[in-house]
Amino acid sequence: MELHFLPKVSVIVPVYNGERTLMECLNSLMKLKYPRDRLEIIVVDNNSTDRTKEIATQFPVTYVFERHRNWAAAKNRGLTICTGELVAFLSHDCIIHRDWISEFVKEFQVDEVGGCGGNILPYRIRNWIDRYYYQFIYSNKRWVSEIKYPFPWIIGLNSIFRRNDLIAIGGFDEKIGRCDDVDISWRVQLKGRTLKYISQAIVYHDHENTFRAFFKGLFEAGYSYYPLVKKYQEFINFPLSCILRNSLRVWREAFKRAIASFMGCLLGKNFENMVFLILQVVGKLIFTFGKIIFCISHRRVTYKKVKSILLQFL
Fold first, then answer.
1. Which residue, 131, 101, 144, is CA-closest to 6?
2. pLDDT tens track for 264-285
3. In angstroms, rounded to a whole number, what is the distance separating the alpha carbons of residues 303 and 287?
């Protein structure tokens, strides 16, 4: 699809303590194959304590500071000052392909398209967690193209939306936590727009996915899930009281698959599949634990109810 129009694009880069990766990220943005007068780059410093400001101000970008340490708040800060027709969001630990914006812009010639998610590739593979993440977690292809219930969603670190849509729906929900990109994707669709996955809108993600980060990320996602579901309860066909039970049932099935895979490995079958399935089991357990902690801390579920759910699971 050829470009028939060149909208102004604002690229918002939220960053917290990004001195290791920010310079390379901004260098790649300087090489974008898109008219410079139709491009605006905004770096939102989310209360960093390192050299983030010093690095950002070396480049011809707009630097702003957001004291509230929250990714949704940082994105909203950028949204309040940007002037582009389209707003792209990029993580500070990403290096972009020079056609990144051009590939996105092609899709917005169709009015029904409200948001696009690009291809997230690893800058380098360091460990098994990296392999798992880029196949199952950091996959806009999976979340946009394959997930249909209740709605698809876009991973925020490589995404783009129409600015007017984001303003009309009130920007990002700062109370949702890790699920702010899920929430914004759902609200855009509820306004009648569609989402698309663009395989050629490529970023290379330079993020080390350690076991500690794996546990922390999935726990925080689980902790954010309950308020997200509550917000959209009318669109999700199971009551809130069933959230934990449903999660544990899924977890139990994943555990059975992992055991079967482990036995297959002992018989000489694929070792990588076994590792991935075990990581899925561990991930679901951590995600479910995050839900339980949220429910208990907000008194949504009593100890007695949690015990009952666990006994049913066992």
1. 101
2. 655 555 656 666 666 766 777 7
3. 18
- Give Cα 310 distance to the centre of its chain: 30
pLDDT tens per residue, range 178-214: 889 999 999 999 999 999 999 999 999 988 777 777 7
3-state secondary structure of 192: coil
Distance CA 293, CA 167 (A): 33
Rounded to whole angstroms, how far apart are CA atoms 258 and 276? 9
CA 126 centroid distance within chain: 21
Strands 94-96 and 39-45: unpaired
Take residue 130 and report the two structure tokens written for it.
């990296």
Q: Which residue has the tokens 């993600």?
A: 205
Residues with Cβ < 8 Å from 167, sequence gap 6 or more?
A: 79
Token code pair at residue 143: 């979340």
- H or E element, residue 288: helix 271-297
* The one-letter amino acid at 310: L
Q: What is the DSSP letter of 110?
A: S
How far is Cα 50 from Cα 47, in angstroms, rounded to an integer? 9
Closest CA to 144 of 127, 159, 133: 159
DSSP secondary structure, 21-73, as one string:
THHHHHHHHHT-SS-GGGEEEEEEE-S-SSSHHHHHTTSSSEEEE--S--HHH
